């Protein structure tokens, strides 16, 4: 049966659709903006348009991290392709989270040598002395064979970071590109960054200096639970608009009736017939005479004719409308919930990944290498984004002082937003974890962001049970003896 709707019926259907689907008032643009801009954090792309114009409050204080330097990597040379460093490194980070200490990872490439430093800081005591001792002990236990040097003077670190004027930022979730059972992920490590960056200028080979700085501040369980509650509330609100059953119908009926009535005088006719009967047939004369007398006169008769016609039609239409954009947003929030649950077990961090280099091109190269290392199967939850901040003095002031870089913006507007939303501390509806140029990560994701190299280079060596010659030695001075 082919259904057709007149204009008035179509209008009623649209009204029923509107009443039955309150989400109709929210266009797909609303959910797309919510999905990409707020949860997927696409607003970073808008900020990337003009990094030189970013403005920040002044950063004058330096976080007093204490540092240890890796001298030997905990990788046996004969097992470099099968030795599982990543899980051991995750154990170190998880133990550091339980102590509540801030952790810093610094990879530097200077004068053809690579160095890796681990820093620690206790925000309660405002000191890094005990924190770095705990970090060194934890690393030695979980990564046997590694050797360190405690830095009593970190002036060399500060001066090197200070000398690199060009900066870059990496946001997004590192995730494994592939993971098969009983295999080691050899693709997503810092090996490529430890080999250095070289180019030729005017016929002379140039070795570029750069640093990768990862700052990780542990999130308290209270913050994780609060964030989970907000995600759950948002997911519940969005679920109303994922699927709605819509129905509409029309009903018509008609009935028509006519009737006629009156009276006729039949007494004279029936009386005459009775009289005739009396004359012609005396035995029945008495009865006929009595009957004639009974009906003599006017007799009322009702002659009624009625007819009716009824027509009824009932047309209904029902279907389910599904907003796939809202469904995708709900699924995204579900994925974040799984990450938070993992973070409650192994640790959750507010993590900033930053790059410093001696030139803008060097920063771009390192950013590209980090993106290739971090991007994996689950990174779509919050894609890896890289930003070359140029020589923005505000960015540099935060990085050289080892602070997470805040998001640029109007401080007064943020205060008004916090008052409107009833937020006592901070200004973002998701809490302090979303108020800086950083990414909330669980320990698994942080271990990928700071994945240790697996091959020795100048400045880094394997455990002391074999000798291996590097394929990428530093450039020798013209006066040096050659083999």
Fraction of helical residues: 25-40%
Instruction: Note poorly predicted spans.
Output: 1-10, 20-24, 259-285, 294-303
Name the beta content range: 15-25%
What is the helix tally? Answer: 15
- SSE ordering: HHHEHEEHEHEHEEEHEHHEHEHEHHEH
Q: Alpha-carbon distance between the termini?
A: 92 Å
What features would you describe in this structure?
- The chain has 483 residues and is an alpha+beta fold.
- The chain contains 15 helices and 13 strands.
- It has helices spanning 7-20, 28-39, 43-47, 85-98, 129-142, 155-163, 191-194, 221-239, 267-280, 285-295, 324-346, 360-374, 393-400, 411-421, 443-449; strands spanning 66-72, 102-110, 113-121, 147-150, 166-171, 197-201, 204-208, 210-218, 243-254, 311-322, 348-357, 385-390, 439-442.
- Strands 1, 2, 3, 4, 5, 8, 11, 12 and 13 form a 9-stranded antiparallel beta sheet that branches. The chain has a two-stranded antiparallel sheet with strand order 6-7.
- Helix 2 (28-39) packs parallel to helix 11 (324-346), helix 4 (85-98) packs across helix 15 and helix 9 packs antiparallel against helix 10.
- It starts with 6 loop residues before the first helix and ends in a 34-residue tail after the last helix.
- 30% of the residues are buried.
- Mean pLDDT is 76; it is low at 1-10, 20-24, 259-285 and 294-303.
């Amino acid at each position: 049966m082919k259904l057709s709707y007149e204009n008035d019926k179509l209008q009623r259907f649209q009204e029923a659709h509107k009443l039955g689907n309150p989400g109709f008032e929210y266009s797909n643009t609303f959910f797309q903006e919510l999905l990409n801009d707020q949860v997927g954090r696409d607003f970073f792309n808008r900020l990337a348009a003009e990094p030189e114009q970013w403005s920040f409050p002044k950063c004058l204080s330096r976080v007093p991290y204490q540092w240890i330097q890796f001298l030997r990597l905990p990788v046996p040379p004969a097992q470099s392709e099968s030795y599982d460093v990543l899980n051991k490194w995750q154990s170190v980070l998880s133990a550091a989270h339980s102590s509540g200490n801030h952790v810093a990872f610094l990879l530097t490439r200077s004068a053809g040598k690579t160095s890796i430093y681990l820093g620690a800081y206790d925000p309660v005591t405002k000191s890094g002395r005990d924190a770095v001792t705990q970090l060194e002990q934890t690393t030695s236990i979980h990564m046997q064979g590694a050797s360190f040097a405690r830095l009593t003077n970190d002036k060399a670190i500060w001066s090197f970071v200070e000398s690199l004027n060009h900066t870059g930022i990496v946001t997004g979730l590192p995730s494994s590109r592939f993971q098969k059972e009983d295999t080691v992920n050899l693709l997503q490590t810092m090996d490529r960054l430890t080999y250095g960056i070289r180019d030729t200028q005017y016929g002379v080979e140039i070795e570029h200096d750069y640093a990768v700085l990862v700052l990780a501040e542990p999130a308290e369980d209270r913050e994780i639970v609060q964030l989970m509650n907000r995600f759950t509330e948002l997911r519940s609100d969005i679920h109303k608009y994922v699927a709605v059953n819509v129905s509409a119908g029309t009903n018509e009926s008609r009935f028509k009736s006519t009737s006629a009535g009156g009276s006729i005088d039949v007494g004279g006719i029936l009386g005459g017939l009775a009289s005739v009967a009396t004359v012609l047939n005396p035995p029945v004369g008495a009865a006929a005479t009595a009957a004639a007398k009974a009906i003599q006169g006017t007799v009322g008769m009702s002659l009624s004719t009625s007819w009716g016609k009824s027509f009824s039609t009932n047309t209904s239409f029902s279907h389910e409308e599904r907003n796939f954009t809202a469904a995708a947003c709900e699924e995204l929030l579900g994925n974040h919930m799984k990450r938070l649950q993992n973070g409650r077990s192994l640790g959750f961090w507010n993590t900033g990944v930053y790059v410093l280099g001696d030139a803008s091109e060097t920063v771009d190269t390192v950013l590209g290498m980090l993106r290739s290392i971090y991007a994996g199967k689950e990174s779509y939850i919050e894609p890896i984004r890289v930003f070359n901040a140029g020589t923005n003095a505000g960015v540099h002031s935060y990085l050289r002082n080892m602070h997470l870089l805040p998001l640029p913006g109007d401080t007064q507007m943020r205060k008004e937003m916090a008052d409107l939303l009833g937020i006592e501390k901070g200004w973002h509806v998701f809490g302090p974890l979303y108020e800086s140029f950083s990414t909330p990560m669980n320990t698994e994701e942080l271990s990928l962001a700071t994945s240790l190299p697996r091959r020795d280079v100048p400045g880094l060596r394997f455990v002391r049970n074999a000798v291996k010659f590097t394929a990428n030695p530093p450039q020798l001075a013209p006066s040096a003896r050659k083999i």
